[in-house]
Design a protein that fits this description.
Blueprint: E1 2-4, E2 20-31, E3 34-48, H1 58-61, E4 65-72, E5 75-84, E6 89-97, H2 106-120, E7 125-131, H3 135-143, E8 147-152, E9 166-172
Length: 174
């Protein structure tokens, strides 16, 4: 069951933010106005986890923002945080599914909820950013009909993750 975050369930935000396995990277290529990519699998896998962020209470009251939480057996096992972006898309700031629940269509259900919210807000689609080394997420977005719309080689250049490239995935819904 997917429920919009409120004051009463705000404590559940970040419960599904768990580590993921880095098994490789995508190598994007831009040719003749079209993005494509190949995959490079790493000989050694490693784990990565994003920092748990504090949730801004404005996500509850601001009509240009939304957070949806996915519950199973009264436990929050997924979340998606989005906002209206200046370019007419709904920008997905965060999506996560608890490790034990991945591969069970929960992420797809959250993306569908985001698309529903975008349509209600008269936005043309969804956009999000992930790193090239989050290969499993990149595969997930491609499977859900997202396409690469941009690549940013400088976004992480001042961080320990300087070897990572930001990939922007888009999906038109109208």
């Amino acid at each position: 069951m997917i429920i919009k975050m409120t004051i009463s369930n705000i404590k559940d935000y970040n419960k599904s933010n768990e580590s993921f396995t880095v098994i490789g990277r995508i190598i994007p290529k831009y040719e003749d106005g079209i993005w494509s990519y190949t995959e490079e699998l790493f000989s050694e896998q490693y784990y990565k986890q994003y920092d748990k962020e504090d949730i801004d209470i404005s996500c509850i009251d601001d009509e240009n923002k939304a957070v949806y939480l996915y519950y199973f057996d009264n436990n929050c096992i997924g979340q998606i945080k989005l906002r209206a972006h200046w370019n007419g898309y709904a920008f997905i700031e965060d999506i996560s599914v608890a490790k034990k629940m991945r591969g069970k269509s929960i992420g797809t259900a959250l993306l569908n909820k985001a698309a529903e919210w975008a349509k209600q807000n008269k936005l043309m689609g969804l956009v999000l950013e992930t790193q090239d080394v989050n290969l499993l997420a990149c595969r997930f977005y491609a499977k859900n009909n997202f396409i690469i719309g941009a690549v940013d080689t400088m976004m992480y250049s001042n961080f320990p993750t300087a070897n990572e490239i930001a990939i922007y995935w888009y999906k038109k819904i109208c």
